Amino acid sequence: MSDSRSGYLLGIGSNIEPRANIAKIIHLLLCQLPRLSLSRVLKIPPIGMNSQRDFLNVVVFIETAMTEVELKMICNDIEITLGRDRHDPARKTKDRTADLDILTKAVFPEDGNRLVSSITDEYFLYPLLDEINAYLSNGHYSTQQAGETITFDDLTFGQTATTIDRNASTGNERVIQ
Q1: Domain at 5-175, CATH homologous superfamily
Q2: How many other CB atoms sit within 10 Å of the CB of residue 82?
Q3: In sequence order, what are the beta bridge partners of 5?
Q4: Model's pTM, two decimal places?
Q5: Structural element, H or E, at residue 97
Q6: CA separation (Å) from 99 to 7, 14, 130, 156?
Q7: 74-130 pLDDT, tens per residue?
Q8: C-alpha–C-alpha distance, residues 168 and 34, integer Å
Q9: Which residue of 46, 55, 61, 82 has the lowest C-beta tally within 10 Å?
Q10: In contact, 21 and 97? CB cutoff 8 Å
């Protein structure tokens, strides 16, 4: 029997300098949280907005006992740190450096077969949700689209689902799976 992992699924995206900003978002999350499990990173055209800039999107599972309110504060702080105006009424239809949305609370492997349409109506995240669900439940997933490589410091991710641990004793991050 495997141990359950409880936490939250986040949808993360950027379409202003997206490679640099996705790397910054992951780094800033790791400054606050000890472990992140990530889907691959996909390039996705903007939906519901007038823009020519493609997004890079990733789904992240954060194993944590913190409340949704506490996590939302971290997400909002990251958006603001990277230049997003959270008070702009048109912020949902503008290009953005950082967009972090809490999609749902989840427990793995129990939620591994959950329908992604029950998690969000943002259908462009469905392949990433399917992938992270399979990854966290030790299931099989076949990718239809190659992931985008993101590199910062000595860390590279984005081609496939992976887990990143923060080494608290050194402050460094490292890929463990």
Answers
A1: 7,8-Dihydro-6-hydroxymethylpterin-pyrophosphokinase HPPK (3.30.70.560)
A2: 20
A3: 108
A4: 0.90
A5: none
A6: 19, 6, 20, 21
A7: 999 999 999 987 777 767 778 899 999 999 999 998 888 899 999 999 999 999 999
A8: 7
A9: 46
A10: yes
